[in-house]
Amino acid sequence: MTPQDCQQLRDRLGRAEQAYEDLQLGKSVRVLVDQNGERVEFTAANHNRLATYIQQLRGQLAAECGVTAPGVVVGPLRFLF
Hints:
- Pfam families: gpW.
- This is Phage tail protein.
- The protein has helices at residues 3-24, 47-65, and strands at 30-33, 39-42.
- It has a two-stranded antiparallel ribbon.
- By secondary structure, the chain is mainly alpha-helical.
- It is built from 2 helices and 2 strands; from the N terminus they run αββα.
- The chain is globular and about 35 Å long.
- It has a single domain (3-65), classed as Head-to-tail joining protein W, gpW, CATH 3.30.1580.
- A hairpin with a 5-residue loop joins strand 1 (30-33) and strand 2 (39-42).
- It is 51% helix and 10% strand.
């Protein structure tokens, strides 16, 4: 990915995280336009779908741009004893 592509991905992640926060705070319906140009409407009833989308964006950022975010595991899991 180019640096511009990575920035666009970070921007989408930021918008999705803001939408999730707005839902959690009761600011009603949030609408996002995904990477395919599809309009996706999230409500409190389907906030899990938005959380999954956020995790996908974080994983994509980690894999393609080398950017890790909280909750993203890169590489194999290791157990600490």
